[in-house]
Amino acid sequence: MVCDTRPLRKEQTLEQRKQQVREIVVSLARDLAAGRVRVQIGPQGAVAFPGWLQGQQGGVSDACALRLIQQDRQLSPLTKQALLRAEMLSGRKINQRAIAAGIHSHDGGKTWGPGH
To answer: In total, how many domains does the chain have?
Structure first.
């Protein structure tokens, strides 16, 4: 999986990891809809999720989670509203090119760095 940041665990199949990633993203979507996690849009249009704790991420990057949320029609409309609200409050749109270039934050959107 391209956006996965950790290798499969011993005896874990690719299908099991895909299901695990799906569960992690659904959990993030619930937290976004409930306001427990925020969306932070950087000056370049990259995205971070302050409040999404390290242990909850399970090796899924912010960029990966965003792409999966944007593609999933079954997730709550409140999740999509959280993304739109962040764009409105920050005064800038989410920039898929910046995300594809690997611009990201390791500190919840306080600082931004290039892909690595």
So the answer is: 1
